[in-house]
Amino acid sequence: MEQRKLGWFASLGAIPYNVGVPQIRWGISSSLWRSGRPIIETPLKPDWRIPKGRRLTPKTTLPPQAGFGPDGRIIEYELDVPMKSILIPADALNKRVHELGEEITEEYRGTVPLLVSILKGGVVFLTDLMRAVRIPHHIDFLQLSSYAGGKKTTGTVRLLSDLGTNIAGRDVIIVEDIVDTGLTLTYLLKQLEIRQPKSLRVCALLNKVEAREVDVHIDYVGFEIPNEFVVGYGLDYDEKYRNLPYIGVLDAE
Ligand code: PRP
Asked: Model-level pTM?
């Protein structure tokens, strides 16, 4: 079901678009960014190679390291490793997270589901998703780790800290940033099923099917992504880059 909805996104695996946020409407002094954030008077940096005095078109893109600050102004993220490409820009993430929130809202209306975020990677996704879920719900966190900061799983999933909530009889939704080999999720599902929740489903922002080592079912998928090591929007490399507002591929060995 999710894959059908995301058919258009399949092409991203072949052609990652090396752009930032594409829909900027420069040159119209009163124009607003789609979400209503003003973009006028936004300072441009000379190294963004936008010729002086040139009227910018809707196709104008931001550099990969840029995003929007809380006041709507463009801010530049400082990276110590170059970004090879941006796989999912911030506005596409925002749109998809709201679609997922709407699906959860419709399917869980009349219940008070418990959204369980897996620290640390899942925390950014959870904080956006919970604001897109329009029905009352609870949240809780647990921390698992299998990558120890690196690019490859150690193969051993460790429970670093447990839930504070008793999930027996509850409708539980696991909120994951990414399902890669599937080892983390398989481990977690086993651990939580023993506690006899009323229902147990999984919402994963990213699904890296090509990397799968164990078969695991995901109920809500944000995006299918190619087998690249991705960072941003909660995902790290060596604990860094979780702060980026988009999903990108680092130019690192
Ligand atoms: C990442 C991610 C998932 C897991 C998925 O966590 O947040 O929980 O890996 O990988 P898998 O499907 O191969 O098991 P990580 O262990 O890196 O910890 P973190 O969330 O603190 O970054």
From this structure: 0.75
CA-to-CA distance for 55 and 68, rounded, in angstroms? 21
179 assigned to some structural domain: yes
* Model pLDDT for residues 152-188, shown as the tens digit of each residue: 666 788 889 999 999 999 999 999 999 999 999 999 9
Tokens of residue 207, six digits:
């699904």
Locate the ligand 1 atom nearest the alpha carbon of residue 182 and give its number: 12
Per-residue model confidence (pLDDT) at position 81: 83
Pocket-forming residues, ligand 1, beta carbon under 6 Å: 118-122, 144-147, 153, 176-185, 236
Give the separation between CA 129 and CA 101, rounded to whole angstroms.
6
Catalytic residue selected from 80, 140, 180, 236: 180
Residue 124 domain boundaries: 110-222
Residue type, 141: F
Rounded Cα distance, 181 and 163, in Å = 23
Distances (CA, A) of 164 to 118, 156, 195: 13, 23, 13
Total domains in the chain come to: 1
